[in-house]
Amino acid sequence: MIKAPEPGLYRTTAAYPGQEEAIPANVLVYVGARDNGTPFVVRPGQNRRNRWFWGEPVIVLRSMSWTETLKRLPAQGFYSLPEDLTISGGGRWLKNAIVQLGYNGEGRGILFVAEDHDKETRNVLVFSDKGMLIDDKLLARLTWAPILPVRGDDATG
C-alpha cells in the first residue's frame, strides 16, 4: 500500500493517471481513507451552507507520484482576516472579521463574511451564499477561528 497524503482538502495540479476525466488538473478533491486503511480521492458532491460534502464513488489512490502533485488546502470552516480587505465596488472587511472559508470546484478559496442582521431575532451570525474569491497568499494567512459546532437536538435558541 502506498503512503497517502494526510486526509484533507487538496487542489490537483495534474490529472490523475487513468482517471483524467474524473479527476482532471485544477480541481478540488478530498483525500481520505476507508475503514480498512485504503486511501482514496473524491471530487465534491454537494455544497450546502458554503461547504462541500463528499460521497461515492471514490477512486482508490494507486499513484504515489500523482499524490506528490497535490496542493494542500486549509480546512473549510471559520477564520479571521489577517488584514483589512478592500471589496470591489467599494467597502471593506476589517482585520479580524470572522469569515467562512469555502472553495469553488477548482479548489480556489472563497470567503464569506459574517453578518449581524438587526432583524434576526436569534443571536446568530449569518453568512451570505455569495463570497469573494481570494488568492493563495491570503488563503495561507487566514487564522483559524474555533466556532463550537452544535448539531440537531443539542442546538439552543
TrEMBL record:
Name by which UniProt lists this protein: Uncharacterized protein
Tell me the organism: Chondromyces apiculatus DSM 436
Organism phylogeny: Bacteria, Pseudomonadati, Myxococcota, Polyangia, Polyangiales
